[in-house]
Each structure stands twice: as structure tokens, then as C-alpha cells.
Protein 1
Amino acid sequence: CRRRGRRRRRGRLRRLRRVRRSLRNALVRPLTALALAAVPRLYMVYMKLVYATSRVEPGDFPHLHEIIREYDGAVGLLWHEEVFTVAYGYHHLEFRPHTLASLGTVGEMITRMLLRCGFVVFRGGSSSKASRRRTGVVKDMIEHMKTHREVIYGITVDGSQGPAYRMKNGGILIAQACDRPVILARTWYRRAIRVKTWDRTAIPLPWNEIRYYLAGPYFVPEDAHTQEGLQRFLLRLEDDLIDLAARSYRELGQPLPSNLVKRSAAEREALLAPAD
């Protein structure tokens, strides 16, 4: 009797799981399609409101147009926390950047936002999930920059999973392979909502103050073909991008995040140590 009772309970559980799976499969596809259609439109409406009601200070960011013309392109590096503003914010200053977006549903949604703002998007990204990566995407970006005029890449150098304020070297490698300069970019705002993500993504609010910051151009040094030279250049850029972010926090009256700090001497020594 007990065995029969256990079998009946297991049977009910299996049927319940099948029902739940069927409902999930029936709902996910139409809801995903609705989100893919609606979210990019809502993003554009919201960002137009933010920029229409805010004081926008481009600073020396328009100088980037001159850098792109003079050097036939550039590779722009920025922190992931400002990613929400990247699509509309660069479009607002009449740039047409190229960037990365991961595969998968979220990547598709982000791609649609970027395309609405005139971006050229490469799919593959640097996601930690294999299903959201595509091998060879960096090679494709290098080939594209070499064969197209005045390409400006915008790359979040601590994405897609962090750690925050720690630079990865993909953008530098693209600049090195294409013989293009690197620039450091920053867009920040006085008032924002911080999302509970690994980077605490900032969403600017309407009736705001929005400032753009630019540093560079930087040129990849000749010794960057060695691991030590590459890491030394990366540390220089990382330090300067941290300084740029800290400047934006101070000028807009905000406390600095506790993790917006440069690497310790021990971390630097480990990065610059020769490979075994």
C-alpha cells in the first residue's frame, strides 16, 4: 500500500511538471516576442524624455569627431555601469559607433535598442555563458575596422560580468591590430537609479544634468606585443578610466563607489610578472 501510494504521488508530480512545462513553453515565446518589440520602443521614448528635460554638457566629447577623422577611426573604452545611456547618448551627439552584444534574448533586445540609435552591432560579446558567445567575433571586428573608414568602436571593458572597474584587454588588442588610437569615454548624470546588478547599472532620471567626458587619444606602445608591455599599457588605461569616473562622481556631487579603486601594488606586480 505504501509503495502504491508513493507511486501515485510520483505520478502526480510528473504530470504536474509536464503541465507546468507546457504552460511555460506556451507563454515564454509570445511574451519574449512582445518584450523584443516593446522594450526598444519604450527605451527610445524614455531616453528622449530624459534628454529633452535635462541639461546636457558635452564638454570636449565632440573632439572625438576630429580624432575619428584624423586617425580613420578609434577604439572607445568605457565602464559597464553607464551602459544604459550608451545607445541614445552617443546617438544624441551624432556618433554612429560599432559595438558588441551577446547572443540570446537579452542580447537581441539590446541589439534592437542599439540599431534604433544607428549602431553597427557585432553579435557574440564576452558573456561568461557559452551559449551567448561566438568565437571569432573579435577577428571580425578587426577585419571590419581595417576595411571600413572612420569606424569608432565602443566597448565596455569590465563587461559582461565584471569585476567592475577592472579592464579586460579586448579593446586594446583591436586597436593594436588595426593601428588605431584608444580613447576613454564617460557619460554620467547627477540623478540616477542604480539597478541591483554586478555593476549597479545606472539609469538616468528626467530633469537631470548629463555630462560627457573624454580622455585620449592613446596609442598602443610598441612593447605591447609582449605580455608585460600589454599589461603595463592596460594598467595605465585602467587607472585613467578610474580617474575619469571619479572625476564625474565628484563633479556631479556623488560619493565614490567603494570599489572604484586602483589595483594594489601586489596586484600590479602579479599582472606584470613574466609568464612561466
Protein 2
Amino acid sequence: SIRQPKRRRKESEYGMQLREKQKAKRAYGVMETQFHRYFETAERQKGITGENMLSLWERRLDNVIYRMGIGASRAQARQLVNHAHFSVNGRTVNIPSYIVKAGDVIAVKENRKNTKYFEQIKTMKVGNMPKWLEFDPEKLEGKILALPVREDIDSQIAEHMIVELYSK
């Protein structure tokens, strides 16, 4: 007998919301519990919950290192932070989820600047840096000029769907 091909059903609202959440979790390398905590923090802040959540993810130290072009990927940036290569406002920080604030200065620690990896970065051209960040490859130092707003974040994440999912 000839089997009929299986038909794909239209994805449910829940399915689409879940896919957005999983996409965001993968993109930022955050586990479920921590992800939910970001949602709760964003919900308590003034403003639009979804945009607050995106802003929190963008302000993670590992993501900022990635955005500055120091790490080739978020995973690599996370490892660089874990290995205590950076200081924030002069203090060593080895916590990838550390949330930076406007005005924070992020620098490669003095004793790490002459490693092969960071020597390569000194010669790189600064690419398309988000306008809320500034990075000087010569000094291996960057600054948070302002908090990121939705227009500054080029992610393809529909954050309103994640908010709807968690608001159920």
C-alpha cells in the first residue's frame, strides 16, 4: 500500500513563543533558570519588559566583550571572562553574567596584555561597534557609553513573544 506523506500542522502560538525563547537562550548562552531570572528582573524595571530583558542580556560582560570584537564568539568571550583576563573599573571580574553599567570601563588586565591573543587584537580594525560601546584596540580598553536601547540591538529575537510565554 502507498503511504500518504505526513502533513505538517501549522505551528501553535505556544510553539512559536517557545522557539523564540530557545533562540534567545542559545544566542546568549544562558540556561533556563538564569533566563527566567532575567525575565523577572526585566519585569520589575520601569519600561517595556521585553526591551529591558534584551538590554540585560546585551549588558552581560561576556556579551560586551563579544560586541567589542575581543571574542570571536560569545562562547569564546565567556571563556576569556572566566579566565579573569578583564577588569571593570579597575577591579578583576571573572563572572560572565556580570551586568555592566553606563560609564563602566572594561580593560584587558596589564599582566595579560602581552599574550599572543591580545597582541593580535591590538592590530585589528574596529568593525561595526554598537553605538553604546567604544573600544580602543591600542590600549585594549573599552567603555560603556550608554545603556543599549532596542534600536541598538540587531538581534533577530521577537522579545514580545518571550514575554507573552512567561506571562501565561
Protein 3
Amino acid sequence: MMIVTSTNIGIRKEILWNNKLVSTGIFKNPTSEGIFLDKTDVRNDAVIDRKYHGGIDKACYAFSENNYSKWQELYPELTLNPGMFGENLTIKELKESELFIGDIFQIGEAIIQVSEPRQPCFKLNLRFNSNIAVKQFFNFGDSGVYFRVIKPGLVMPNDTLILTESSQFKHSISAVFKAVYEKPNELLLQEFISNPQLSESIKIDLKKKWQIS
């Protein structure tokens, strides 16, 4: 059973990284008041670069609470509180191999749909004060998941994700994420690109990465 253990929200921060001032909303903290999922973002959450964050296919990002322990072992000097990965929802028992593109869930007042895995940018390195956090993220393969918001609504800690509609396309978040950095067979790659419920941004990335017209 997938249960929300923390709802997280962030404010805009300016951080000096590699001698450049970077604006980011990755620094998120838990809020006991819950969060309101809107169509293109979480209400009152900082979304800085809307070319890569927010929007219909990336309205809300969730990460598994179960993954925190192995990251804590890698970074014992850091305190890894919920929201450390920039997620709006920290969810217990979220498993990318069991979430399929197009699955629809009721969560609190909201209805959400699985749309794509996360592809981390350099700001994850910034968050961990490390030059290799992004590489480690790919090595682990635990991408977390982006959701579309079909019905906006309030989500609170301890809300449960209830599957209301299973996708007819059995393309897991794990499989799509792996295809970003390890080429799948041609048939599977074409299936991903043809999946109408997979976000367009991932399709574009797959076509560009593997030179598919």
C-alpha cells in the first residue's frame, strides 16, 4: 500500500554553485497542512525553470521514502529530511517497477495519472553538495515519478494512493527510465514512443538519444 508520509513545498533560493548564482526550487520542506495539486504545478510551490519543471505532464513529483536509507549511507554528513530530492510527495512503498505509464490514482481530493520518470539535472548535485549525485541517481535507477493532475485537490500526509484505473500500456516507470540511458530493443523503443500516455518530453528525449525519426 502506497501511503503519503510527507507533503513538501519549496521556495525560490539563490545558491552559488561552481562560481555561478543558481535559482532553484529544489529545496523543499514538509508541511503538515498538506499541498494542493493544480493542473500544472503544486499551488504555492516554487517552480523556477518551466521549460523543464511543472506543466501538464510534470505537475507533481513523488519519490519513495524507502530509498532514503541508502542515500543516507552515501551521505552520512547530511540530514536527509523528506523533500530532499525536490519531491512534493514522499511516499512509502512507491515502487517504480510497479507503476505504469497511464495508471490513474485517487489521492486525497485529487486524481492523478502516471506520466514519466524524473531525469535529474545538476541541481540534484547542488542539493547534495556533490559532483556525483546525479550519476548515483542513475546508477540506483530509482527515478521517482511525475504525475499529471486530472482532478485538482488537496493531498495530506497519511493519504493513500488508490488505483482507480490500470493502464493498458504495461510500460513501467523503471523501464522507461532505463531506456533513457540504456537503449532498449527497437520494438520496445517504438512502443514507448507510440504510447499516448507517455509525456511528449520523454518521447523527444528518447528520439534524440537513440536517433529515432
